[in-house]
């Protein structure tokens, strides 16, 4: 029987991009385990809906029996773990789901992998990898002149989201150290690109601008994020899976620090060119009360990825941002299915409520 990889959260933004990239480059099947929360969207995977190498399973990473069954049934040789609650603002208003999925869910996944490997022959165990996909937010906030986060920067998470991710990173690390599970942890900076749920900064601004609604910017708009095009992140994860060393951490970023205000102005300039009838879109910018505990600056030092794994980003911020805007303009149907609730109704009809 051929081996496969298990992707968790593969119907979300980065996970779906990863599944599409994987199937475009490899013959090996992907088992895609996703709970289809509000952020999971099978429309993201329409291009592989009839591809026998894509095995979609609706389920929860907390369901250890299900995970163990999938691992054994599909001879899984690697897990790429994306599944998470991922939105900082939601974590502030309702942190519980973040603990349930990000912390408990990761615990159950690690335990399922450990039980599965214990029953595998040595050769299969030696080849196995568990890639735990995490965020730069676990490192907390940088001052204006601090060096970017490296793999040895201490954790200092400030939001319920980043605290839950940091907790899951510690579990993943401990499962390697204590049980020898071949875990590799990655910390990536902010991603942008196609299929991002329209609650996050870039799609929110594009869609609001297109419909003439205000562009709300937290505080003074000077918070800095380090942006990476999603396909570059997916390629980095494939390199990690291929050549990363178990027990190691790799920071992934685009060397692309921008203030939120700069990002929104750049989006407005692209929209002015592509949709001149709404120009100037920057007139819609509004400053709103800051997010509580809002981190000021994130930046990633990605030299280890380059030095050890030969990875570097392909996409410049300007071209990546233009591609992203063009994607949202060309996929108004995708947006409409989410915003009208039609997609949610489809999920409930086909899978029931969970
Ligand atoms: P997303 O919110 O778009 O997708 C998350 C996916 O996980 C959804 O498909 C959802 O249905 C699924 N899911 C949630 N709870 C689940 C559960 N209990 N069991 C199974 N599936 C579940 O998130 P994203 O932006 O694609 O982020 C993916 C991963 O990458 C997360 O772990 C996040 O912390 C990490 N990350 C994201 C960014 C970013 O900029 N978006 C940057 C660095 C790291």
For the secondary structure, the number of strands is: 12
Distance between the termini: 32 Å
Share of residues in strands: 15-25%
CATH superfamily: NAD(P)-binding Rossmann-like Domain
Walk me through this protein's architecture.
The protein is built from 13 helices and twelve strands. It has 354 residues and is α/β, with parallel strands linked by helices. The protein has one domain: Rossmann fold (3-Layer(aba) Sandwich). The model has no long low-confidence stretch (mean pLDDT 96). It binds nicotinamide-adenine-dinucleotide. Nicotinamide-adenine-dinucleotide binds next to helix 1, strand 2, helix 4, strand 5 and strand 7.
Question: How would the blueprint of this fold be written?
Answer:
Layout: E1 4-8, H1 13-25, E2 30-34, E3 54-58, H2 64-73, E4 76-81, H3 88-93, H4 96-118, H5 122-127, E5 129-135, H6 160-179, E6 183-188, E7 190-192, H7 201-210, E8 215-218, E9 224-229, H8 230-243, E10 249-252, E11 257-259, H9 260-274, E12 285-288, H10 303-309, H11 317-330, H12 332-339, H13 342-351
Parallel strand pairs: 1-2, 1-4, 2-3, 4-5, 5-6, 6-10, 7-9, 8-12
Antiparallel strand pairs: 9-11
Bound molecules: nicotinamide-adenine-dinucleotide.
């Amino acid at each position: 029987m051929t081996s496969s990889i298990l992707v968790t959260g593969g119907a979300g933004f980065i996970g779906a991009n990863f599944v599409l990239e994987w199937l475009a480059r490899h013959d090996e099947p992907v088992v895609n385990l996703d709970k289809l929360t509000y952020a999971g969207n099978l429309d993201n995977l329409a291009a592989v809906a009839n591809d026998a190498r894509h095995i979609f399973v609706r389920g929860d990473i907390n369901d250890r029996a299900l995970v163990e069954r999938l691992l054994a049934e599909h001879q899984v040789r690697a897990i790429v773990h994306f599944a998470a609650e991922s939105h900082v603002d939601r974590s502030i208003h309702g942190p519980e789901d973040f603990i349930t999925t990000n912390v408990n869910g990761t615990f159950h996944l690690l335990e399922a992998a450990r039980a599965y490997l214990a029953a595998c022959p040595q050769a299969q165990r030696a080849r196995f990898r568990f890639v735990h996909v995490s965020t730069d937010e676990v490192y907390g906030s940088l001052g204006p002149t601090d060096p970017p986060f490296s793999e040895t920067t201490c954790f200092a998470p400030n939001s319920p989201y980043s605290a839950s991710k940091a907790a899951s990173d510690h579990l993943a690390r401990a499962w390697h150290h204590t049980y020898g599970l071949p875990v590799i942890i990655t910390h990536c900076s902010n991603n942008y690109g196609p299929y991002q749920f329209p609650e996050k900064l870039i799609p929110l601004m594009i869609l609001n601008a297109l419909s003439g609604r205000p562009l709300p910017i937290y505080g003074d708009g000077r918070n800095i994020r380090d942006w990476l095009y999603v396909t570059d992140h997916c390629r980095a994860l494939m390199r990690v899976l291929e050549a990363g060393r178990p027990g190691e951490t790799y920071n992934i970023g685009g060397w692309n620090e921008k203030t939120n205000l700069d990002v929104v102005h750049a989006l407005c300039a692209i929209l002015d060119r592509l949709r001149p009838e709404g120009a100037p879109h920057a007139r819609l910018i509004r400053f709103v009360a800051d997010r509580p505990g809002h981190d000021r600056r994130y930046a990633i030092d990605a030299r280890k990825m380059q030095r050890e794994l030969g990875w570097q980003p392909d996409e410049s911020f300007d071209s990546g941002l233009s591609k992203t805007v063009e994607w949202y303009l060309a996929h108004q149907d995708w947006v409409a299915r989410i915003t009208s609730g039609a997609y949610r109704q489809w999920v409930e009809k086909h899978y029931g409520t969970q």
